[in-house]
Design goal:
150 residues; alpha+beta; four-stranded antiparallel beta sheet; three-stranded antiparallel beta sheet; 3 helices; 7 strands; 31% strand; elongated
Amino acid sequence: MKRTLTGWHVFGIFAGCFAVIIGVNLTLAFQAVSTFPGLVTKNSYVASQRFDADRAAQNALAWNVSAEIADQVLTLRVLDRDGVAFEPAAVKATLGRATHVAEDVTPAFVWDGTALVADVDVPAGYWTLWLNMTAEDGTEFRRRIPITAR
C-alpha cells in the first residue's frame, strides 16, 4: 500500500524541526546564563565616577605589563618608564576563562629578579589574567591581559 505525503505530514515535519531548533536554543541560552555571571562591578555608576581619574593615575605610572604562560609557568613582566623590570609593592591576580569562573586560579607569584613567576596547572587555550597591582606611592594599577596557554 502506497502512502501519500499530505499537508498534515509536511506540517508535522516542519513543526518538529522547529521544536528541535527552539529546544536546543533554549538549552544553550540557559547554560550560558547560568555559567557566566556577567558581573564586572557591583555598581557601574559608582565605578564610573572615578574612572577617568583612576585611568590618568595608572597612565602616569607608565608601566609596561606583559604576561605569558609556557610549560605551566605564568610569567608576569612589569617594566617602568625606563624599561627596567621591577616588583610592584603588591600584586593580586586571578587567572581564568573569559566565559566562566569554574577554572579560576589565584597565582602565587614569586619575584625571580627579572619577573614575577607562578606555577599554574591550566590546560591549553585562551585565558584572561585580571591584575590589581599597587605602586610604591599607593597608586592602584588594574589591567586585564588576554593570554593563550600552549
